[in-house]
Amino acid sequence: MKVKILSNREVAPEYFKLSFSATKELLKGRPGQFLMIRGDWGSDPFLRRPFSIYRCRKEDESVEILYRVVGRGTRLLSRLSAGDILDVLGPLGNGFPVFTNKGNLLLVSGGVGIAPLISLAESVGSGISLIAGGKTKHDVSYIADDVEELCIDVKYVTEDGSMGQKGTSVSVMREMVTPNDTVCACGPFGMLVEVQKLSVEIGFSAYVSCEEKMGCGVGLCFGCVVSGVDGEYLLVCKDGPVFDVQELSWDRNS
């Protein structure tokens, strides 16, 4: 479907928030689902790029994504402005479960992996605990207005100590998590591996949103295959991107 960009702002070095007009179908997107997006920039690059839903603003019928400039596609996306047209496919994939006991819900992010977790926090409501981690303050500072608006209890952590506690998301999670908690995490693969290890060690439930390169987003190209615990192949775009950590074979996927 074709949608119109409402704003495309750089909120930190190389990080952008892009808002666009949304149809009723797009506004039904659930936390953890994603969109396949490309701009009107010709045939190079040809394929759409996957982006998690960051916020669904039903009051003004818009959807917001968060992205970091990492390649040609996102570089071209960063050059678009209000009024430009996007080609959007979605919402796609399976999102996070519906949580009723939000008091024991702990969200853990690394870098741009914060995107689906803000969406989840907005869906569940106030009272959410969030660990927002990155290498420097530029990887986390841009969410401050959103977490304040959504009344999210946030703990910032950076590897260089430039914002919040010095360390990693996982090191802070180890200090906070209890066996009664449910953890939802998104970030680099190495971070998700550590979340899985801690879930076994401590005994909490955990769901992870996997970040993989995708070609089609609908399970046709088999470009985002991961190994399930029973040896079967799973598609991040179709079977995920959100998985219970017990569904995946972490040794095979490393």
Describe the structure in your own words.
By secondary structure, this protein is α/β, with parallel strands linked by helices. It has 3 domains: about 1-90, Elongation Factor Tu (Ef-tu), domain 3; about 95-210, Rossmann fold; about 210-254, Dihydroorotate dehydrogenase, electron transfer subunit (Dihydroorotate dehydrogenase B (pyrk subunit), domain 3, Ribbon), CATH 2.10.240.10. Helices cover about 20% and strands about 35% of the residues. The protein is built from 7 helices and 15 strands. The protein has a 7-stranded mixed sheet, sandwiched between helices. Strand 13 (about 225) and strand 14 form a beta hairpin. The longest helix has 14 residues, at about 190-200. The protein is globular. The mean pLDDT is about 90.
